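Hello forum,

I keep getting stuck at the same step: I have a sequence, I want structure tokens, and every attempt I make locally crashes halfway through. Rather than fight my setup again tonight, could one of you with a working pipeline run this one for me? It's a single chain of 490 residues.
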Amino acid sequence: MAVTTDVERIKSILSNRLTPKWFEEAKFGIFVNWGLFSIPGWAPKSAPLPELLRQNYNEAQKLTPRAEWYWNGMRIEGSPTWRYHQDVWKGCPYDDFRDAFAASVESWDPMSWAQLFHDAGARYVVLNAKHHDGFLLWPSQRPNPKREGWQTSRDIVGELANACRQLGMQFGVYYSGGLDWTFDADPIHGGQDMFAHVPAGPEYANYIVSHYRELIERYSPSVLWNDVGVPDVPELFPLLYFYVTHVPEGAINDRFIPVAPWLHWLRRGPVRTVASIFGRLRSSDDDKSRSQPQALIADFRTADDTSLPKSPKRKWEIARGLGNSHAWNRAETDTDLIGGDALVHLLADVTSRNGNLLIELGATDTAALPESQCARLRSLGDWLKTNAEAIYGTRPWWSRAEGKTTDGLSMRFTAKPGMLYAVLLGTPAKDSVTIENMPPVKSAKIELLGHGPLQAATDQDGDLTVAWPPGLAKQPAYSIKIVLEEGEEI
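Reply #2:
Ran it on my machine without issues. Output:
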């Protein structure tokens, strides 16, 4: 199919797209980080990166707890990762991890991963086809011009895509369009450096455009998940148009942000100092630090590690590791990961606020997913077997996202046409539950998902009281379903 070069017409077509319905309704996905960085699999244990940016903006990437940034950290003399690399790996080149990674790939079983994700309740899966180190997880016809053999011979992207689709899940690709340390070898120290390290010039721009076209043509990804912007090139909008014509129900994230070449000036002393001041001020402003620069074309907004403060009308997604690293970090123990109950609560919270939860997992140096991660996914999947109706396919209750009982138990609200769900974030301790400040409900059709009808009544203060069944086991959350009469809205 010929791709039109009428950029203004393309912008109009793309900007008027609706977020694909499947993505709106999916609510829960899995992101897998796997690559050469999985061989050392290490980062210092520190605060989450958004918090680190507020605490130490100029050194945040130097101190990052994210193990996928290993190559960056090992090049900064005196950094925690540099010291670890000297002690454990004797300062070997990052390239030396290729043989060990290739050996781990030989034993990899994509279907075992896909089955775990399916059983956990994930509706879509995203794989990092290329992370910031530039190493490709598919046998590309456009190899890296800076590093010979900088890709896998086994088609990891294609095999995981096939396994996920066999089990009914959508499959998407992550691609680091903004950073590639094979094209720009200078290490990144702090937040102000990020966009200054997007490689400039036509060689890199043509390289990533050809990769995106190859990924689209070969794998038809349901999600196109870019990171850290893209070079400011005229081919960007024709590329996205090519994607939506090839994959009409594909979803585009909001990080296809053109980065102007002049931002390289941010590396220079005086300019870097001024950028640092503004960056620190932005990171200390909670609302601004949670937001990304606005892309001209996007089907959903992307947040890292922290959820947005309100229920935005526009669809969004939070990408969040189970720990502070998004890839496997051998320094993190089970107690450093989010607990099973808290993971259920996070899914309910994000869903109530019009978001999707994208949990980031990291494969180990043996191509395994750590049991500590798998156990949390299985726990979430067990909860969803009973409570799926209150999550998938819902929309926010625009009146409010959250509430509480008179006993102080927090809850989150979701809705469908003719139905309202109140997800209790815990197990009530008494024989009745009273939800504060509910509008009058005419219908008496109220039930506890998985347990049947509940007796309920609304008092004159607007509180809704339901009888709680005796003997229910402690659970991370319970979901109360309120079925409205025809035409009734609350």
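The CA atoms of residues 427 and 472 lie 8 Å apart. If your local run keeps crashing, start a new thread with the error log.
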